[in-house]
């Protein structure tokens, strides 16, 4: 590795190594990729003490930097969360290998037999903030899908990510796969991010995973194609036909389980009929849980709330704060979400099938839910084992980006001396 003071040359070297590794991974046997991830899972669990110690350094850095409690929660690792990383690695290892899967096949009158087959994208660059588990998730999913990956973790998670990355390398070595398949940028220098965004010819796609500032920078400056969501402005709509107890459980979980993740609810829309039937029950639950409720209009009279400003709607708080508003029926909720949402995840709470269908049909967010918490909006809960991010665009990948979404396809055409007249 070149001197880390020469960031452009360092990144170019990472790119060259990744490109060479990607060429080998494209035809690596599925059992070797699975073995690498199983060995990596074993290594993570064996190194849990080392990882927790490294994480303590990062937590100290985060405290000194003044990170919010929610961001510190994103950063923190303990034995339970390390167990979750291990489980995620094993889940991805156990998935069906997508590379080489025949998506469709057909015969033509000309005598050609045509197959559309999944193939890796090549080299993926992942830029992320705070959450060190992304090191394992992204590394595992890229490997499973036959892609090499260059990981650039956040400055806050620098030590934790290095400790986890060492375990991924141990897995690659044990399975006889190139260590350059999963590379971690070894510097906090932000110039490395700038270089990654310009590495056309060495990186095939960039996946940013972080706050609005990071994702906005990537979308503005990247010359490499990007899978991204700008923000997770997730809404929960309590319909007039919602079941009160279900609604109370879901709303509280959607906001408070982990308020710093992109699937956390940031806005609660309450139908006027629901409010007439049940009063401020949902708001009172949130207040009792220590959530700051920013309420608009008549809801502002509920004791303990604070007045909502216009900019509180369409805002990603990533904290124990939520905006609340009364709406007139499902169409009022749909209109609000269209105006203020980020097309990430929205939930409707209702026992009315027709209303739920209308909500699902007329909104175009990547994930729509009924009577379920928005906190489920990730690949681990969708049966993907893990996810590299939630894509809210409409090209190539949308929603949770798992191993299958990190592939493209090619056509395999077979003839028998077949010529075109």
Characterise this structure.
This protein has 421 residues and is an alpha/beta fold. It has 2 domains: 7-227 and 401-414, Aldehyde Dehydrogenase, Chain A, domain 1; 234-381, Aldehyde Dehydrogenase, Chain A, domain 2 (3-Layer(aba) Sandwich). Helix content is 41%, strand content 19%. It has 14 helices and 16 strands. It has helices at 7-25, 30-46, 48-65, 69-75, 79-94, 133-144, 158-175, 191-197, 212-221, 244-256, 272-278, 281-288, 329-340, 353-362; strands at residues 102-107, 113-120, 123-128, 148-152, 182-184, 205-209, 234-238, 265-271, 292-295, 306-307, 321-327, 345-349, 367-370, 390-391, 399-400, 407-414. Strands 10-9-11-8-7-12-13 form a 7-stranded parallel sheet, with helices on both faces. Strands 5-4-3-6 form a 4-stranded parallel sheet, sandwiched between helices. Strand 14 (390-391) and strand 15 form a beta hairpin. Helix 2 runs antiparallel to helix 5 (79-94), helix 2 crosses helix 7 (158-175) and helix 5 runs parallel beside helix 6. The protein is globular and about 75 Å long. The N and C termini lie far apart (55 Å). The model has no long low-confidence stretch (mean pLDDT 93).
Question: Which terms would index this structure?
Answer:
single chain; 421 residues; alpha/beta; Aldehyde Dehydrogenase, Chain A, domain 1; Aldehyde Dehydrogenase, Chain A, domain 2; 2 domains; seven-stranded parallel beta sheet; four-stranded parallel beta sheet; 14 helices; 41% helix
């Amino acid at each position: 590795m070149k001197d880390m003071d020469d960031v452009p040359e360092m990144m170019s070297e990472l790119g060259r190594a990744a490109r060479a590794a990607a060429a080998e991974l494209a035809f690596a046997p599925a059992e070797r990729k699975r073995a690498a991830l199983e060995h990596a899972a074993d290594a993570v669990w064996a190194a849990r003490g080392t990882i927790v110690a490294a994480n303590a350094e990062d937590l100290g850095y985060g405290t000194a930097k003044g990170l919010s409690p929610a961001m510190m929660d994103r950063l923190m690792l303990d034995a339970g969360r390390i167990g979750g990383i291990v489980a995620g690695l094993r889940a991805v290892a156990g998935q069906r290998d997508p590379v080489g899967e025949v998506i469709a096949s057909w015969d033509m009158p000309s005598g050609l037999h045509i197959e559309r087959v999944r193939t890796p994208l090549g080299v993926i660059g992942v830029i992320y903030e705070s959450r060190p588990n992304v090191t394992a998730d992204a590394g595992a999913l890229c490997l499973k899908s036959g892609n090499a990956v260059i990981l650039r973790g956040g400055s806050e998670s620098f030590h934790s990510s290095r400790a986890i990355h060492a375990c991924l390398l141990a897995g690659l070595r044990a399975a006889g796969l190139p260590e350059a398949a999963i590379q971690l940028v070894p510097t906090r220098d932000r110039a490395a991010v700038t270089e990654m965004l310009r590495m056309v010819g060495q990186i095939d796609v960039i996946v940013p995973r972080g706050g609005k500032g990071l994702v906005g920078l990537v979308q503005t400056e990247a010359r490499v194609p990007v899978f991204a969501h700008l923000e997770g402005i997730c809404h929960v709509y309590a319909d007039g036909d919602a079941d009160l107890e279900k609604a109370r459980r879901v709303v509280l979980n959607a906001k408070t389980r982990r308020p710093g993740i992109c699937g956390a609810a940031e806005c609660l829309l309450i139908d006027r009929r629901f409010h007439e039937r049940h009063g401020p029950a949902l708001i009172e639950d949130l207040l009792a849980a220590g959530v700051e409720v920013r309420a608009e209009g008549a809801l502002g009279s509920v004791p303990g709330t604070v007045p909502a400003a216009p900019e509180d709607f369409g805002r990603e708080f990533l904290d124990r704060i939520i905006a609340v508003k009364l709406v007139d029926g499902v169409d009022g909720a749909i209109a609000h979400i269209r105006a203020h949402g980020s097309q990430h995840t929205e939930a409707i709470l209702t026992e009315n099938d027709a209303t739920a269908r209308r909500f699902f049909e007329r909104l175009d967010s990547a994930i729509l839910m009924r009577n379920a918490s928005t906190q489920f909006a990730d690949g681990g809960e969708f049966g993907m084992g893990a996810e590299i991010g939630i894509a809210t665009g409409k090209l190539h990948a949308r929603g949770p980006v798992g191993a299958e979404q990190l592939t493209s396809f090619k056509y395999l055409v077979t003839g028998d001396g077949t010529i075109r007249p």
